[in-house]
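Slide 14.
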Amino acid sequence: MSDSPAGRLQALFEGHRLTPTQRRIAHCMVRSAGDVPFLSSVELAELAGVSQPSVTRFAVALGFDGYPALRRHLREVAPPEAGPGTGTDGGEEHNEYQQAVLAEIENLRHLAGLLADPRPVERAGRLLARSRPLPVLGLRAASSQARGFAYFAAKVHPDVRLLDEGGSMLTDRVDAAVRAGATALLCFALPRHPREVVEALEYARAAGLTVVTVADSAFAPVAAHSDLLIPAAVGTGLAFDTACAPMMLGRVLLEAMADELPDAQARLEEFDAKAAARGLFVE
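Slide 15: predicted structure.
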C-alpha cells in the first residue's frame, strides 16, 4: 500500500468488517482523500450518497467515538496537501481498483504460504473422496464457491450433492445424504456468515458427518462446528467481498480429492470423449 493520503485511508479501513453502505463511504473517502478531513458528517453523507447516521455508524465501526473523532484522526493520517492520484512515493500511485487487486494478490500469496504444508489439504482430499455421496454446502455469498466446486467435482466423483439453498429443507437434505452413506460434508463459509450455515454444520456433525470447511478465517463463526478448517482470506477493498483465494483453495481441494479417486482420470477421459461426440464445445 503506498504512503499517500489515499493509501493511508485504505490502510485505516483494512481489517474492519464493513457493511456495503459503510464500504461505499470508505471508497468515497479514498477518492476524495484531500478533502474529507474537512468535511462535516452531513457533507460526507451527501458526497457518498448515504444518510448522516450511516456516517456516524461508520465512524463507530472503525473504533472511534463518533465522526468528529474520526475527522480529527483523518487530519493526522491523510493531510490535505496530497490528494488521491498524486504520486508521493516516487513513482506509482494505485487507485482503489488497483489496490483491491493487489490486496487479492496478497491473499493468494498468503494461501500459497499456507499450502507449504500440504497435509491439511491432503487429509481433506481423502475425506471428500471417501464420502459417497459428497454434500457440498454454500449459502448466500458462498453459494457460487460451492456451485463451482460441485460442478467440477461431479466430473470425477460419482455422487456430489450441492446444498446451496437454506430453509427448512436443508436439514432434510443433510439427512438424505447421511442415509445414502455420506461420511463427510464440504462447506464454503464466507462473510457475512449466515446463521443457518452455523446451524447446518452443527446439525451435520451431530448426524455423524465430518465437516471440512473453507472459510475466510480460522476464527470464523463456523470454526467451532468444523472438523477441518482451511482458511483463505477474502478481499474487502470493494463494496462487496472478493473471493479469489477461497476459489483457488476450492480448486486445490478438487485436485487433492481427484488424487484419491482411482478412476478420476478415466472419468475425465470418458467425459471428454462424450463431449467431442456431441460437439459440446466450440473448438
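Speaker note: The two ends are 42 Å apart (CA to CA).
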